[in-house]
């Protein structure tokens, strides 16, 4: 009896050890996969977009890139309260991802080198658009018929002796097929944002093909240096256009924390008027945030300015006594 109990305990311990080893191996493989995964950044003009759900999750959990969802949902394409993919990110976020080797840009221009392929893709797109219009027109007609049918049934129940009203509704229902019009302006265009492996269709390849928008002015370079330094310090950043600054700075994930700072990126040699300082300081006080003036400082004796020191100055409105 004791021997059997000992044997069962040994078997359960072996099974527990094997399951633990499987879980550890699975976690290790998932960590290696996340570490080796390269994010694909698609460009719409100069706007960086993330389309794949795995890329969005990796950027938020591992890199700290937040962004904003700007796509429509498949089941509710016309509402704008809850949005879906793609995720629009800042140019500074995209540039830092590419610079650190964690992302690459998507280019498919080789598919459209000749005019024949472009015209063929355009014709296919027009054919799909026309087919979608016919399907939506048929659905709208069915909805209209259902409404008239319901009205006719209500007339029959309410006015059993009034045959004139019932006849008028019946005639309108019969003539609806010929007189019904569905304007093309009311047509809903569905963007296909979820596919197995996200293999773009031909028209999406041409739409997403774009050159990488490298910063060409001094302000863009200043923003990028400030963003890179704050991310290196562990802060999370989002756009702060509605607060009059460049970035909102969070101590952690924005789902768990409120922003503590409004970052305003300024070159070291740029002069800022006093009334602008007072306006941004008072705005920060009204929204209970500290204003940060962020200015990159380059070393004069360095040939390649790869590492820069960012000088931070905080502003708080204390009122006039």
TrEMBL record:
<comment type="subunit">
    <text>tRNA splicing endonuclease is a heterotetramer composed of TSEN2, TSEN15, TSEN34/LENG5 and TSEN54. tRNA splicing endonuclease complex also contains proteins of the pre-mRNA 3'-end processing machinery such as CLP1, CPSF1, CPSF4 and CSTF2.</text>
</comment>
<dbReference type="GO" id="GO:0005730">
    <property type="term" value="C:nucleolus"/>
</dbReference>
<dbReference type="GO" id="GO:0006397">
    <property type="term" value="P:mRNA processing"/>
</dbReference>
<dbReference type="InterPro" id="IPR006676">
    <property type="entry name" value="tRNA_splic"/>
</dbReference>
<dbReference type="InterPro" id="IPR036167">
    <property type="entry name" value="tRNA_intron_Endo_cat-like_sf"/>
</dbReference>
<protein>
    <recommendedName>
        <fullName>tRNA-splicing endonuclease subunit Sen34</fullName>
        <ecNumber>4.6.1.16</ecNumber>
    </recommendedName>
</protein>
<feature type="active site">
    <location>
        <position position="250"/>
    </location>
</feature>
<keyword id="KW-0507">mRNA processing</keyword>
<dbReference type="InterPro" id="IPR016690">
    <property type="entry name" value="TSEN34"/>
</dbReference>
<keyword id="KW-0539">Nucleus</keyword>
<keyword id="KW-0819">tRNA processing</keyword>
<dbReference type="InterPro" id="IPR059049">
    <property type="entry name" value="TSEN34_N"/>
</dbReference>
<dbReference type="GO" id="GO:0000379">
    <property type="term" value="P:tRNA-type intron splice site recognition and cleavage"/>
</dbReference>
<dbReference type="GO" id="GO:0003676">
    <property type="term" value="F:nucleic acid binding"/>
</dbReference>
<feature type="compositionally biased region" description="Basic and acidic residues">
    <location>
        <begin position="13"/>
        <end position="31"/>
    </location>
</feature>
<keyword id="KW-0456">Lyase</keyword>
<dbReference type="GO" id="GO:0000214">
    <property type="term" value="C:tRNA-intron endonuclease complex"/>
</dbReference>
<feature type="compositionally biased region" description="Polar residues">
    <location>
        <begin position="1"/>
        <end position="12"/>
    </location>
</feature>
<dbReference type="Pfam" id="PF26577">
    <property type="entry name" value="TSEN34_N"/>
</dbReference>
<comment type="similarity">
    <text>Belongs to the tRNA-intron endonuclease family.</text>
</comment>
<dbReference type="Pfam" id="PF01974">
    <property type="entry name" value="tRNA_int_endo"/>
</dbReference>
<feature type="domain" description="tRNA intron endonuclease catalytic">
    <location>
        <begin position="221"/>
        <end position="296"/>
    </location>
</feature>
<dbReference type="InterPro" id="IPR006677">
    <property type="entry name" value="tRNA_intron_Endonuc_cat-like"/>
</dbReference>
<dbReference type="InterPro" id="IPR011856">
    <property type="entry name" value="tRNA_endonuc-like_dom_sf"/>
</dbReference>
<feature type="active site">
    <location>
        <position position="289"/>
    </location>
</feature>
<feature type="active site">
    <location>
        <position position="258"/>
    </location>
</feature>
<feature type="region of interest" description="Disordered">
    <location>
        <begin position="1"/>
        <end position="31"/>
    </location>
</feature>
<dbReference type="GO" id="GO:0000213">
    <property type="term" value="F:tRNA-intron lyase activity"/>
</dbReference>
<feature type="domain" description="TSEN34 N-terminal">
    <location>
        <begin position="39"/>
        <end position="107"/>
    </location>
</feature>
<comment type="function">
    <text>Constitutes one of the two catalytic subunit of the tRNA-splicing endonuclease complex, a complex responsible for identification and cleavage of the splice sites in pre-tRNA. It cleaves pre-tRNA at the 5'- and 3'-splice sites to release the intron. The products are an intron and two tRNA half-molecules bearing 2',3'-cyclic phosphate and 5'-OH termini. There are no conserved sequences at the splice sites, but the intron is invariably located at the same site in the gene, placing the splice sites an invariant distance from the constant structural features of the tRNA body.</text>
</comment>
